[in-house]
Structure formats: C-alpha cells, structure tokens
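Example 9 (inverse folding). The structure is encoded as follows.
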C-alpha cells in the first residue's frame, strides 16, 4: 500500500497532485526548487538558474472556464483569457483554499530519484534532495513527477550552418526572452512559428526596425475570439463536435476546418498554409495577420545558412543586416534527476501507458504528470491524470497487466520519429484523452443516463463546452457544485464583459435552447454510441 508520495515541482501539476493525494488519504511531500509556487507561470525578470518562465506579456490560449481545476472555478470577474499574474493569483487561491502550502518544501531541488534495491517487491524510491547545499536522502512509496514540458530549451544550431562560426550578431532561445525593449531598433529574425514564435514576432514588430519570421511548415491561425465573440475553445471543444469528428470522414472535417480558417483570411495569400498541406500546425494568434498585412512582420521559408550579417533562405532569398536571431524552437524533456535505467524507458509521452506510467517497471509507483500535449488545457488533463494516479496509489483503481500496457503503448506509438521540437506526435484530442482517463478513474459522466434523468444538464454537456466540471458529476471526488457550475458557465463567461451594459432585445440564449431541443435525437444517438464505443478513437491532431 502506497502512503508516502514525493511530488517534484509546485506548478499547476504539482499543486493538483498534492490535493489529490490528500483526498485519497496519502501523505504528499512536494519539492520545489524555487521559493514560490506557480512554476512556468510565475514570471520573473531574471533568466538565471535555468528556470523557465513565461514572458512578460503572455496571455493564456485557453479560456478560464476551460482551464480551471474541476472543483474550483475561476472568480467570475476574472477575464476569459488571463495574464500570468492572474493565473498565479488563482494558483495561490487554490493552494490557500485546500491548505496545500504546508506540504511543500521550497528551495529544495530533487537531485536524484532512484529505485530502492528491493524495488521489485516494495516499489519504493530513494529521493535525494538538496537545500542550501545540504543533501538529504528520503524513502518514498511513490513518486509523481510534475515538472511539465518546458524543462530544457531545444536549440538546434547544427541545423543552421554558419550560426556559430560566421554570424556576428546575437542569437538566443526564446526561453531568455522577457520583453521587447532589448530589441528596439534591431532587425530580428525569429525562427519557428509555434504559438511562442507567433506571439514574439507580433510583440517585437512594435519596437524592432524589422521582424522576419522563418518557418518550414504550413501553419493555420485561429482567433481566440470565436463566433459571436465567445472564447474559441468554449465554442469548438464540445462533445457534439467531437461526435461529428468521429462520425464524418476526416477529409471532410479537415476541409471544413480549412474553409473556416480561410473565411477569416486566405492563408495561401499570406504564405502561411495551403489546403494541400499534408503536415500543418495550428496556432492561436489574432494579430499576426495584420502584422503581415502591414509589413511589420515578413514571413520567410526555412533558413539555409547564416553569413556574418545575413540569413540565406531555402528559396534563395537573402535578408541582410540581421542583428538578432531568436530561436522559438521548443523544448526537450530530459528528466535529469531520474536514474538512467528509468529515464531510458521513454523518449516521449507515447512511450508511457496513457502518457503517465512507464509500463516496464515492476511496480507502477512512478507517474509523470502533465507530460502531455492536448488540443485543450493541459491543466485540466493533468488534474485528471493526478486523480487517476492517486486512486491507483490508494488501491481504488487498478492497472492492467504489464503485457496489456505494453501492447497499448506499442499501438499508440507514432509511425515516424520527428524532430524533438515538433511534438505533433504528442498532441492528443482533449476530449478523447480526458474521457479516456476519466473512464479509467470511474468519473466519466454517462450521457445516456443523464438524458433520461436530467435532460437539461445532458444537453448542456453534449452541445456546450466540455468544461472540467463534467468530471465532478459522478464517482470518487464528486462535487456537489458541479451541476450548477455547468449550467452557469456562460454567465461567468459574460460577467467580466458587463462593465458597460447596453440594451439588446435579441436574446440568443433562448434560441440556443431551442436548437438543443431540436437536436435531441442526435444527442440520444451520440449517447448510445458513446456508451457502446467509449473510446470513439483516441486521435491526434496536428499542431
């Protein structure tokens, strides 16, 4: 029986892991190398110590209703998309409310996590920590690694001939970027067009003399402000749309997505993407199209090589007088504190059972929390992982035999290895993955049962956004406020916008209700199919 659990990292994943341990009667001890909670989201001006944080101007890409912990909604007056300061404030509120801080040892680094000699029988781990230069050894029954994705910058200098030997300007990874002031008046080349590369290009365009954005892949842009002004993820991340994804041919769904994106602006005209692209990224950025349209950002293909002051691109064009190269090329995940025999068991999250457990271990007492890329909020997925894992540690949930876990892992492995920074193979559909883990934990709601017992709630769950509260309706950890939270989620979305109220007699809410009633047969069919085929495909999405 697991009792004592080591948790490494006090960011979002670490905090929710502490809470889940406490709910299951376990004894968590969290080791946090910095002096405070928040992890990535606790912004600091300093880049010393190798700690990765967000940049000063960052705003979340997922909305508050889709990102909150499942039994702790954001305050209703918080904006829908949050700056890092408000997200950190939310973490502090969560930690205070559930009395989590007393279980965290700050300024304590996990130096080593090794299996005990009797691991095959006990499943125990020896954890070496260091505080103020003094090392200490501990024995734990289980370990939850909560260090997340953003551990070590991926800087592929070997792929860019001349950057180290010829180029006289400055180059750096986006990890070291804090704000745009240091780039004022410079000619800047940003390499990589993920969410970070897009954001930084836009911000730099306001102060730099010129910004060039280099990409080697097609990229489709989405706007956080979606239909009728609602948050994108609340409109798009619904069980109804997931049902259509499962029901209709993938080529048709891709065509619909391309058409929707091009109704905003034609991506081919901007050099971003073509409907014929086989591999593509999806990023969230409202301002980049205008920057391209106004010429403050210039899109370029992949860099072929660097000279003393210029960048030569694969299409044969050259941009002269480049002052700074900013690599937005992602991160790798070394987990340096894990012993080599354990670390070698996985090189990405698909090497783990359900992206959590190394299946080769004799005892399932090591869990990697938050090591997953989803099409929605990783915070929500991480909480579901922690709930399931702590249920396993406490003996309520069971894992299948190792042979079945290995077979599952083999089935989910991507067919071709990609560049470490291109985590297409790590991005999973939010609803499919979260439902999968919720089913394992026994907390996935039954749509068919709800249609028979609480049709209003069932319709809100099926046609409305797949908010985290849905996973608190049944099973262990059931929350009495979950139903009310679901039925009032749109009110909390609109609340921070009601700072100036205007008269609008066209109430669209009643129209939405009528549409839901008309679509009741589709909901009944979906409920039956979801109960008959619970996985509905555990599919990836390019990104």
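The amino acid assigned to each position is listed next.
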């Amino acid at each position: 029986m697991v009792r004592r659990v080591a948790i490494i990292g006090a960011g979002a994943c670490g905090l929710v892991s502490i809470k889940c341990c406490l709910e299951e009667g376990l004894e968590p001890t969290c080791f946090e190398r910095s002096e405070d909670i928040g992890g990535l989201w606790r912004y600091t001006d300093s880049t010393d110590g190798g700690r990765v944080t967000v940049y000063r101007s960052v705003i979340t890409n997922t909305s508050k209703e889709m990102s909150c912990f499942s039994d702790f909604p954001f305050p209703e007056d918080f904006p829908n998309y949050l700056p890092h300061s408000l997200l950190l404030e939310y973490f502090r509120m969560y930690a205070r409310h559930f009395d989590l801080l007393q279980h965290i040892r700050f300024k304590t680094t996990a130096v080593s996590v090794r299996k005990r000699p009797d691991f095959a029988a006990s499943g125990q781990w020896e954890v070496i920590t260091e505080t103020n230069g003094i090392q200490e050894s501990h024995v734990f029954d289980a370990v939850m690694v909560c260090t997340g994705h953003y551990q070590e910058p991926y800087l592929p200098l070997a792929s860019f001939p001349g950057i180290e030997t010829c180029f006289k300007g400055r180059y750096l990874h986006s990890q070291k970027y804090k704000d745009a002031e240091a780039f004022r008046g410079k000619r800047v080349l940003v390499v990589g067009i993920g969410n970070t590369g897009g954001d930084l290009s836009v911000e730099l365009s306001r102060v730099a003399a010129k910004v060039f954005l280099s990409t080697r892949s097609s990229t489709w842009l989405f706007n956080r402000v979606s239909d009728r002004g609602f948050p994108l993820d609340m409109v798009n991340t619904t069980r109804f749309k997931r049902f259509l994804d499962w029901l209709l041919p993938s080529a048709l769904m891709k065509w619909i997505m391309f058409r929707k994106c091009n109704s905003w602006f034609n991506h081919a005209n901007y050099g971003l993407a073509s409907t014929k692209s086989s591999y593509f990224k999806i990023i969230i950025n409202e301002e980049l199209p205008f920057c391209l349209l106004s010429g403050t950002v210039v899109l370029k293909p992949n860099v072929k090589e660097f000279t003393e002051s210029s960048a030569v691109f694969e299409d044969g064009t050259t941009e002269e007088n480049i002052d700074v190269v900013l690599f937005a090329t992602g991160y790798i995940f070394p987990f340096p504190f894990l012993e080599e025999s354990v670390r070698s068991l996985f090189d990405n999250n698909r090497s783990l059972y359900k992206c959590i457990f190394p299946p080769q271990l004799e005892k399932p007492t090591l869990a990697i929390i938050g090591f997953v890329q989803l099409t929605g909020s990783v915070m929500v997925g991480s909480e579901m992982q922690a709930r399931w894992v702590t249920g396993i540690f406490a003996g309520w949930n069971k894992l299948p035999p190792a042979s079945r876990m290995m077979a599952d892992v083999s089935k989910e492995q991507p067919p071709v290895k990609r560049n470490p920074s291109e985590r297409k193979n790590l991005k999973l559909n939010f609803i499919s993955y979260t439902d999968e883990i919720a089913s394992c934990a026994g907390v996935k709601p039954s749509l068919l049962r709800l249609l028979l017992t609480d049709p209003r709630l069932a319709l809100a769950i099926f046609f409305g956004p797949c908010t985290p509260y849905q996973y608190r309706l049944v099973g262990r950890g059931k929350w009495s406020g979950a139903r009310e939270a679901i039925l009032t989620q749109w009110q909390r979305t609109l609340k921070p916008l009601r700072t100036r109220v205007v008269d609008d007699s066209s109430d669209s809410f009643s129209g939405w209700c009528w549409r839901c009633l008309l679509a009741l047969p589709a909901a009944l069919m979906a409920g039956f199919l979801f109960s008959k085929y619970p996985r509905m495909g555990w599919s990836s999405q390019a990104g």
